[in-house]
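Internal tracking record. Fields below are filled automatically when a chain is submitted to the structure queue. Please do not edit lines marked as system-generated. If the sequence contains nonstandard residues, flag them in the REMARKS field before resubmitting.
Queue: standard
Priority: normal
Entity type: single polypeptide chain
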Amino acid sequence: MGLEDTILKFLSDYFNVTECSVDNQGMTLALKSNHPIAYGAIKDLADLIVEVLNMNGIEFRQGVFNRVEHGYARFV
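SYSTEM-GENERATED OUTPUT FOLLOWS
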């Protein structure tokens, strides 16, 4: 897809990104942060990803946070 490098570069300034992959089935992103407002920031990040994908002509139909723990979040 080509957008994973752009997403990874941006996120790496703020989070420890442990996984980022995009294919025709979806996007998987795993990141870590111990910042006290990380949970809210991660939700804002999900909204931003939807916006960026839409701006690039990619329809984003569904997003799921499937694991959120203190200092860790993963969504696909």
